[in-house]
Specification:
With 469 residues, the protein is an alpha/beta fold. It folds into three domains: 233 residues, FAD/NAD(P)-binding domain (3-Layer(bba) Sandwich), CATH 3.50.50.60; 110 residues, 2-Layer Sandwich (D-Amino Acid Oxidase, Chain A, domain 2); 49 residues, no CATH class. It has 13 helices and 19 strands. The strands form four sheets. Strands 6-5-14-15-16-13-17-19 form an eight-stranded mixed β-sheet, sandwiched between helices. The chain has a five-stranded parallel β-sheet with strand order 8-2-1-12-18. Strands 3-7-4 form a three-stranded antiparallel β-sheet. A hairpin with a 2-residue loop joins strand 5 and strand 6. Helix 1 runs parallel beside helix 4, helix 8 packs antiparallel against helix 9 and helix 11 crosses helix 12.
Length: 469
């Protein structure tokens, strides 16, 4: 494991508290360890000494990847963590060289593009980050405690700490801090606690999508070399509501996810139903890879009802000493894979705000994150809003934007510059404005004959039964 980072020589404050051991919470605690003399991470679950799923993370059994921007931020907070992740069995793969991706019915070209992403289980990623955090000399981890409310100044203008106790009850403790970060997820109780303190209720935007998916681990078959580490079949929205992926993870296993919008996902734990759903995808590659592969464990289901954005940036009053990070601020349709990277971006924003000192950091941070979230929120919800059944305000020019996006994706199937630009935007390395640069706009408008949708398709490779295990 890499060498721990030293405590800050000029701290912004004495003590910071992060509650919630999510990926966003762990990264935020790492950031705060560089700005405060002491940091305490509080988590309701008990942490196991190893990559174990937790009760408080119901989506832990499903696919999770850090996009390039998120991986870069993680490496800045915990230098050398990519090597730690690989040493623990995770993979760092190139987005197009190791990824066979059929997007909207068209296969993208393959080849190294210089954008890395992670392939591992969620418990492994969380454990590797947590080990690095626990190794920091000024960080203390308190697990098996839930937060029950805020401590405040007499005038309630500042949050000065938290109240906590064992889950289910018991003696209440208090923990004072100069800064509190809520990383407790989309079920965060901060809106209710702030309202009880006399603050207005935070405005929320919900876009209901009823995404359902099921995930299962498989043994990666012997002598099966399809030329990819990830296989993704993304639908053409709104005509095709189903999606499927195979991702290689630690232990030489496949993590397989099948799902869909508007309730169209696998609904049982039956092997035959799972395979039948895979067979119903628009391309045969995933089904052919699975039909003779050996399952490693049970089928896990997950339901995501709606995108949720809390507009803390719009609140006319907000206490100092409090920040909100990760899904507690905004949570997206997980099929787009933006959540962990957006949480890392929020932690980075908190670091930037603290460079100006502790005074006023809560106000600077919530306004900066409000702006930061606009791009990933639009990227995620614009796909969901393509379904007529999904209720939500379509922005001006929505139809034109979708037309242009579809044309750009067609261009990316045979133009490497367009492919690189598209992937850099998707990985949050570049702004979406790059898609509409004069050069890209000219290419999109003058390209008339897209190649065959199968031009870059891998050859479907069925696994012989005697090679499945």
């Amino acid at each position: 494991m890499s060498t721990p980072t030293s405590p800050p020589s000029t701290p912004a404050g004495m003590h910071a508290v992060v509650y919630g051991g999510s990926i966003a919470g762990l990264i935020a605690a790492g950031v705060l360890s560089r700005r405060f003399e002491r940091v305490t991470l509080v988590e309701r679950d008990r942490f196991e000494d190893g990559p174990q799923a937790r009760k408080g993370v119901p989506q832990a059994q499903h696919a999770h990847s850090l996009l390039t921007r998120g991986l870069d931020i993680l490496g800045d907070v915990f230098p050398g963590i990519s090597e730690d992740l690989k040493a623990a069995g995770g993979l760092i793969v190139d987005m197009t060289e190791h990824h066979a991706w059929c997007m909207g019915g068209v296969w993208l070209p393959r080849g190294r593009i210089g954008l890395d992403m992670t392939c591992q289980s969620r418990p492994l990623l969380e454990w590797v980050i947590r080990r690095r955090l626990q190794a920091l000399p000024n960080v203390r981890v308190v697990d098996g405690r839930e937060v029950t409310g805020f401590l405040t100044s007499p005038d309630k203008a500042r949050v000065t700490g938290i109240r906590l106790q064992a889950p289910g009850g018991g003696p209440e403790e208090t923990l004072e801090a100069h800064l509190v970060a809520d990383a407790s997820g989309r079920g965060s109780r901060a809106p209710q606690w702030l309202e009880a303190l006399g603050y207005p209720r935070v405005e929320e935007t919900h876009i209901h999508v009823d995404v359902r998916y099921a995930t299962r681990l498989y043994h990666r078959p012997r002598n099966f070399e399809p030329g990819w580490e990830i296989l993704s079949l993304s639908p053409r929205l709104p005509e095709q509501p189903r999606v499927g992926t195979i991702q290689r993870i630690e232990g030489d296993r496949w993590l397989v996810m099948l799902g869909g919008w508007l309730g169209d996902g696998p609904s049982t734990t039956d092997d035959a139903d799972f395979l039948e759903f895979a067979r119903g995808l628009p391309q045969p590659h995933l089904y052919e890879a699975l039909r003779n592969a050996e399952p490693y464990g049970p089928i896990h289901h997950y339901r995501f009802s709606h995108n949720q954005r809390r507009h803390y940036e719009r609140m006319p009053r907000f206490p100092e000493g409090l920040t909100v990070v990760g899904d507690a601020f905004c949570s997206f349709n997980p099929i787009y894979g933006q959540g962990m990277t957006t949480g890392a971006l929020q932690a980075q924003a908190l670091d930037e705000c603290l460079r100006q000192g502790l005074d006023g950091v809560a106000q600077r941070y919530r306004r900066q994150v409000g702006q930061l979230l606009s791009t990933p929120w639009t990227m995620a919800t614009s796909g969901d809003l393509r379904f007529p059944q999904v209720e939500g305000k379509r922005p001006p020019g929505y139809a034109l934007t979708n037309w242009y996006g579809d044309r750009f994706q067609q261009l990316a199937t045979h133009d490497l510059e367009a492919l690189r630009t598209f992937m850099r935007v998707m990985h949050m390395v570049e702004s979406p404005a790059a898609l509409g640069s004069p050069r890209m706009l000219l290419k999109v408008l003058t390209t008339r004959s897209p190649p065959s949708s199968q031009a870059h398709a891998p050859v479907p490779m069925a696994i012989p039964r005697n090679q499945a295990a």
